[in-house]
Design goal:
Length: about 475
């Protein structure tokens, strides 16, 4: 068994309750903040008063206190404070959650888009759109003005991979609404859907349309969301939520703040690949597609942010699937779970082989023949191709992975097919002109799943297309 999974299985249920050190909080100078802020911002103070932090004696200053040397430190009513309470600051008391969150794909969400797709935001929209859209989900790079105040072009922001003034990544209040910071609230699907909804990651819509979503709504009162521990199969059985499958404890599988750990595929790329998970000695992680060179233990590797790390362990895709399946097995049988996973994987493989590979090959050939400019999004077919994998392609794959037949087909693969046959191919042929045979047809003719195109007799009767007798 790989180190990763054996690590995952070592402790029953929630990982060991970390003993918090009470000498870390209860700073008396923090009492003054409350009395004044009860007037200055009464809603905020009231939320804190109802929180687990208040109950445990953790006050405003315990979180907001700063060192004078911090880039965002400011003197406020006689105390040195910072407005941003970063994951690193929370990590002073919650080290386990901090380390898992820093090592997750969530923490990389800003780093990822900084290097990719600026044209989508800047050309199609305009640079101001980044702050109001991409960055609200992915995170911003928060800048500090001279007096310790935060640059309003980059904050407010609670994006999932925000780069904080202290260098730490992300924002714990992305999921834990402030100032309640409740775990019951974060167990709700609603904690995720601000970002996981819409064309490219329609997980909200998919969950709601699934049998799990149906039962969650009907049996929410049996979900035991307020429980101190929340282990699927023990503390609740009515239905799984996003958190159950991607973060929650189930049987012997402990909970984790690393949301990507249990996922095999890259479902949001032009062509999906199974992914290895490389875990570094310093806790950071990196996903590598199955066709990359997979490093050995002890090897050194450059990561997304440019730093070099030493490999501690590598989890192959099968181990990640095993972890996800352990969640299902709390409520379903083995054969049921395997059967479902087979159906899901088959949809991803179909998408890859029939649409994703051929479309990408055709686009590559059109660029190579200089029939398209290298500038993205200045030609209609670039939108057609983008939507093929990013919108309908993502809906089909996400729909199949999370049990919504509507999204797998009507909102997903059906639209992929319609786009491919009725927009993408005609546009590609028109652009290729006299070279269509080599740039387009040669690619399509190699794919068995497109052979029906050459056999119109076979289906003409079905939909009434052939006239009166059709149905
Ligand atoms: C005498 C009243 C008073 C006291 C005491 C006080 N605050 Fe404030 N604080 C305010 C007011 C009023 C504002 C809003 C100022 C503004 O609008 O820029 C504010 C703003 C803030 C901000 C936002 C700063 C920004 O602009 O980003 C934070 C964070 C904050 N206070 C935390 C604290 C903490 C922590 C303490 C205790 C150490 C504290 N406050 C004590 C009145 C007070
Ligand atoms: C558990 C840690 C924690 C505690 C306790 C806490 N805060 Fe905060 N506070 C945060 C976080 C996190 C943010 C979000 C800042 C960011 O990261 O963007 C924040 C933001 C703020 C802001 C600016 C955001 C806004 O909505 O205007 C103010 C003002 C503030 N806190 C005041 C207070 C006061 C007053 C108290 C005590 C009644 C308090 N905080 C207690 C963590 C805490
Ligand atoms: C509503 C929230 C939201 C907005 C707005 C948003 N994204 Fe995303 N983005 C996501 C989510 C969620 C994912 C992860 C999808 C998945 O893995 O299922 C994602 C994935 C991505 C990826 C793929 C990352 C990977 O895993 O390889 C890129 C690139 C990206 N977004 C860029 C952008 C850009 C550029 C913008 C603005 C033009 C933008 N996004 C706007 C939520 C958002
Ligand atoms: C992606 C959403 C998300 C983010 C981001 C997030 N959390 Fe959580 N957190 C949750 C969920 C969901 C739970 C409840 C998990 C459970 O009970 O299975 C939780 C639970 C917790 C708990 C209670 C753990 C326990 O065993 O009682 C703490 C403490 C916590 N989070 C701290 C943090 C800190 C610190 C950060 C930032 C470093 C953070 N969280 C970021 C979703 C999130
Ligand atoms: C100074 C120490 C300290 C800091 C800093 C701190 N916490 Fe806590 N946190 C605690 C204590 C103590 C508890 C209560 C533990 C318990 O009840 O077992 C707690 C409980 C929690 C819980 C569980 C709440 C519930 O519903 O049971 C969450 C979630 C959480 N903290 C998130 C955060 C986040 C996010 C930050 C940073 C914004 C943060 N904490 C900063 C000490 C801290
Ligand atoms: C503030 C926005 C935001 C919130 C809230 C959020 N996410 Fe994400 N999530 C993202 C973005 C952006 C990505 C893509 C990041 C990347 O690929 O690096 C992502 C990626 C993911 C992934 C894909 C990991 C992979 O393997 O590629 C999963 C699973 C996920 N989130 C689950 C959740 C769950 C569960 C919650 C709620 C408990 C949640 N997220 C809350 C923005 C968010
Ligand atoms: C019954 C379990 C289950 C529930 C409930 C569930 N998911 Fe998933 N999710 C999965 C599985 C299985 C996959 C595919 C994993 C793989 O690639 O092997 C997946 C894939 C994803 C991905 C794509 C990751 C990637 O590789 O690009 C995201 C993002 C995601 N889920 C977020 C969510 C959100 C948000 C919710 C709630 C609205 C949710 N999930 C509810 C099981 C679940
Ligand atoms: C907390 C319990 C729980 C967990 C965990 C769970 N499920 Fe379910 N699931 C249910 C319930 C309850 C139903 C509804 C059964 C029914 O009425 O047919 C269901 C229904 C389904 C269905 C629809 C079956 C049908 O006959 O229409 C599929 C597929 C499914 N689950 C797959 C999964 C997979 C895959 C996982 C793990 C990634 C998983 N479930 C995790 C409780 C759970």
């Amino acid at each position: 068994m790989g180190l990763l999974l054996s690590g995952l299985l070592a402790e029953p249920g929630l990982a060991e309750k970390v003993a918090l050190d009470p000498s870390q909080w209860g700073d008396e100078a923090g009492e003054k903040c409350v009395s004044c802020h009860a007037k200055a911002s009464s809603g905020l103070a009231a939320q804190w008063r109802e929180s687990a932090h208040h109950a445990a004696g953790v006050n405003c200053l315990d979180c907001h206190r700063a060192e004078r040397s911090d880039p965002d430190a400011m003197v406020h009513e006689g105390q040195v404070i910072a407005t941003i309470v970063s994951p690193k600051d929370c990590g002073r008391c919650h080290q386990k959650e901090y380390e898992e969150q820093q090592g997750s794909v969530h923490a990389e969400a800003f780093t990822l888009i900084e290097a990719r797709l600026p044209a989508l935001a800047d050309h199609v929209g305009g640079p101001v759109m980044r702050a109001a859209s991409c960055d609200q989900c992915h995170g911003s790079r928060v800048r500090v003005q001279g007096d310790g105040r935060l640059d309003p072009a980059t904050w407010p922001n609670s994006g999932i991979g925000r780069i904080n003034p202290d260098g730490s990544k992300g924002s714990c209040s992305a999921c834990h609404g402030r100032h309640g910071f409740s775990k019951a609230q974060a167990r709700e699907p609603d904690a995720c859907v601000r970002c996981h909804s819409g064309p490219d990651s329609p997980d909200k819509e998919i969950f709601e349309a699934s049998k799990h979503g149906m039962l969650y709504v009907a049996h929410r009162h049996q979900m035991n969301l307020e429980a101190p521990e929340w282990i699927a199969g023990r503390d609740y059985t009515a239905a799984p939520t996003c958190v159950t499958c991607h973060m929650g404890a189930a049987g012997k599988l402990p909970s984790t703040h690393d949301v990507g750990m249990r996922n095999v595929w890259s479902l949001n790329s032009p062509v999906s690949k199974r992914q290895f998970l490389v875990v570094f000695e310093d806790g950071a992680k990196l996903e590598l597609p199955e066709d990359a060179e997979i490093p050995k233990r002890g090897a050194e590797l450059t990561r997304l942010d440019g730093t070099v790390g030493r490999v501690k362990t590598v989890a192959p895709p099968e181990r990640r699937r095993q972890a996800m399946s352990m969640v299902c097995l709390e409520c379903h049988a083995k054969g049921f779970t395997e059967g479902f996973m087979n159906q899901f994987d088959a949809v991803v493989e179909l998408f890859n082989a029939k649409f994703a590979h051929p479309a990408r090959t055709i686009m590559d050939r059109l660029y190579a023949a200089e029939l398209l400019t290298p500038t993205p999004f200045d030609e209609p077919i670039e939108f057609t191709y983008w939507e093929l994998w990013h919108d309908e392609g993502a809906r089909a794959r996400h729909g199949a992975s999370m049990m919504s037949p509507n999204h797998a087909w009507w909102e997903g693969m059906y639209v992929v097919g319609r786009n491919f046959y009725a927009r993408f191919l005609p546009e590609a042929r028109a652009i290729a002109g006299e070279h269509a045979a080599e740039l387009v047809e040669a690619v399509i003719s190699k794919v068995g799943a497109h052979q029906w195109l050459n056999d119109p007799q076979q289906t003409s009767a079905i939909l009434g297309f052939a006239g009166e007798g059709g149905r």
